[in-house]
Amino acid sequence: MSAVPAVERLTLAKAINLGLRAALEEDPKVLLMGEDIGQLGGVFRVTDGLQKDFGPDRVVDTPLAESGIVGTAIGLALRGYRPVCEIQFDGFIFPAFDQITTQLAKVRYRSRGRLSLPVVIRVPYGGGIGAVEHHSESPEVLFAHTAGLRVVTPASPADAFTMIQEAIASPDPVLFFEPKGRYWDKGDVDRGFSYGTATGEGLDRARIARAGTDVTVVAHGPTVATALRAAQAAAADGTSIEVVDLRTLSPLDTATVAASVRRTGRCVVVHEAPVLYGTGAEVAARISEECFYLLEAPVLRVGGFHSPYPVARLEHEYLPSLDRVLDAVDRVLAH
Amino acid sequence: MNEPDMVQLLTPTGELRDHPEYSPRIAHLDPDALRGLYRDMVLVRRFDSESTALQRQGELGLFPQSLGQEAAQVGSGRALAPQDYAFPSYREHGVAWTRGLDMADILKQFRGVDHGGWDTEAHNFHLYTLVIGSHTLHATGYAMGIQRDGAVGTGDPQRDAAVVTYFGDGATSQGDTNEAFVFAAVNNAPLVLFCQNNQWAISESTDRQSRVPIVDRGKGFGVPSVRVDGNDVLACYAVTAEALERAHSGNGPTFIEAYTYRMGAHTTSDDPTRYRSSAEEEAWRRRDPIDRLRLHLETTGELPAAFLAELDAEAEAFGERLRRDVRAMDKPPTSTMFEHVYAGAHAVVEAERAWFEQYEASFEVAPEVTR
Question: Does domain A207-334 have CATH number 2.60.40.420?
Answer without folding.
Answer: no
